C-alpha cells in the first residue's frame, strides 16, 4: 500500500460554534493538514469519502439545537456518508474488521455509523469498528444516506408486525418516505398524514396505503373520521410522530386502545395536549424515540443492518431522492439550500471531486 | 353445616342505573331474597359480609363515569369488602380453595377480589377463587380496605427499587397515604405534593420523606425548585399522578431524564401539556395505570398479596383511617357523605349489624 495515494492536505467543512445561531454561519470550508496517517492506531483506517447528505439533524447541530453536540471544537461537520477504504495500518490485519466483523481491504466501499466522524470532508481517520462494508452493487450516493433515515424508520416500526396498521405525520419528509418504504417491504400498512394536497400520488407510488391531508388547524375531527373510513375502522396500534402539536394529537386520536405514540421530532415546535382519558381509558403510552436507543440494542441493530443492505441492494427500498449535489467548498450555499423549503429531495455533498 | 344459619332474605344496596347522574340517586337499599344457597355450584360459597368501604371508584360507578360497568342491572354495588365464610357446598371439598389454593372452611375470614361481587350487602354468593383468606389477627375493618388501595399503591411503585425517589400528587388522599406507607415499608423515598398547607405533619407521621405544597396555579417553578432543594437534586425516576392538569405537569418537570410518568387518576379533570422536549430530550414515558393490568400478572400479584398480608399483620402498613361507619340501610346518606369533601377518612358500611 503506497502512501502516495494520500494527500498531505484536504478540504473539510468545520463547525466552530455550539451556541445557537444561523446554521450556514456556523461553518467554514477549510484546508486541513491534520491527516497524520503514519500514526494511525491499529484499529483505525483512512476513508476517502464519496458523498455525505445534509440531514435535518445536521442542520440542528449547526444551529445549536440538537440533542447532541460535537465532543470538542473545531469539529468536522456531517453525521453520515459513504466512502472507500484508502489506507489501513500495516501489520494489523487482525484488527482491521468493520463493526460486524468483516475483514476490511483497501478499496472496500463503506458507510459510517453516525456520531463517530465528520463526514463533510475529503478524508477522515475512522475507527474501523465504526464502519460497515456495503456491496459495490449499491451506489455510493445511495449508501451515503443509509445510516440515519432507514435505520430510524426501521427502529420506529420495530414493534409493528406484518399486516398491522401504523399512522405517521410529516409523511412526505425524507424520514416519512423511508417509513413508507420500509413498512411496505415488511408488510406493514401505513396511514400517512400530510399538510397539503397534491402529495398523495407520490406517496402512493412508493407504497403508502392511505394518505390523509390535515393542515394542523381546523379539520381535526374530519381528518380522524377520514382515517377511520379509509382504513375500514382498522385498529391502529402504533403512531409515529415527527410534528407534535395538533398533528401529534391527531395521531393519538386515531390510535386504538392500548396503542403506542412514538415521538421522534417536533416540527411544529408546539407541545401536545394529553388527557387523562387517553392514558387511563384508552391506555395510550407516549414515548420519545431516538436512533441512539436502537443502536444500543446491538443484536437487533445488526439484524436490521443485514436486512437493510439486502433490501436496498434488491431495490425494494430506495434512499431519498436527491435534489442537488454540492462540492464541499460550496458548504454555506449547500446548507442554506438544505435549510430552505425550496427543495424536493436531499441536498448531498460530493466529497470526492472526481465523482459525478 | 346447618342451613339455619343463613337467612331467607337479606339487605343489599342495589344499583339500577348506568347513565350519568348523582351517585346517591343511583342506588336503593333493598331486601333481597335471591340467596338460593341450595343451588350453589361446587366452586361457590356464601360469604357473610362484615365491612365494605365506599371508594372513589365506587362513587364513579354510581355516577356512571367509571372505566367499568356492572355486567347487568340491577347489580349489588360495592367493589371490595371483608367477611366470613358462612356456607360451603357439601361434597366438594376439593374445589373449596381460595384464589391462592388455600382450603376454605366455614368461619374463615376472607376478603374479596374487586369486580367480582357486590360487597354492599349482608350476604353474597361468591366464586371461591375470587376470595383470599386473611389471618384472624387482621381486623375485619382493616381487611375490608385491603383489596383496592394497597395493591394499587404497590403496583404503581412496582418499578421502584429500595433507595429510589418517587414523586406523587394528591398525597393526602387514601391512595396517596397507601403509597407513602407501602413505599416506606419497601425502603422507597417519597416526594409528596399536596394542594394546601397544614397536611405536612400527618403525612410525615405515616412515613412521607418530603411534602411540598402546590396549589395547581401560579407557583409551578417555585414548587419544582422546592422539590429539587429538599431532595438535594436527587434523580426521581417515577412519578405517580392522580390529578393531571398543571399538577401532573409538575411531576413531569421534577422527573429525571428517562423517568416514567404514571397516571392513575384525573382529579383536576384537566388534560396535561406534553412537550416534544420532554419526550425526546428528557426521554419521559407517559402511561396510564389501572389495577386490572397488575392483577392480570398473576404471579406478581400473588407475591404482592403474600407481602401485603404479612406487612399489614405486622402493623407496618395500615389501611385508611375511618371517618364514619354506616349501616347498609343508610346507603344514600353514606354515599353523600363519602362524596363530600367534609370528611377526614374512609366511609365504611357495617354489613353485619351484629358488629360494632
UniProtKB/TrEMBL annotation, chains A, B:
Lipid metabolism is among the record's keywords: yes
Gene Ontology cellular component list: mitochondrion
Entry keyword Mitochondrion: yes
Protein keywords: Fatty acid biosynthesis, Fatty acid metabolism, Lipid biosynthesis, Lipid metabolism, Mitochondrion, NADP, Oxidoreductase, Transit peptide
EC class name: oxidoreductase
GO biological process terms held by the UniProt record: fatty acid biosynthetic process
Domain Enoyl reductase (ER): 30-349
Catalytic activity field: a 2,3-saturated acyl-[ACP] + NADP(+) = a (2E)-enoyl-[ACP] + NADPH + H(+)
EC number: 1.3.1.104
Compartments where located: Mitochondrion
Superkingdom of the organism of origin: Eukaryota
GO terms for MF: enoyl-[acyl-carrier-protein] reductase (NADPH) activity
Protein family per UniProt: Belongs to the zinc-containing alcohol dehydrogenase family. Quinone oxidoreductase subfamily.
Protein name: enoyl-[acyl-carrier-protein] reductase
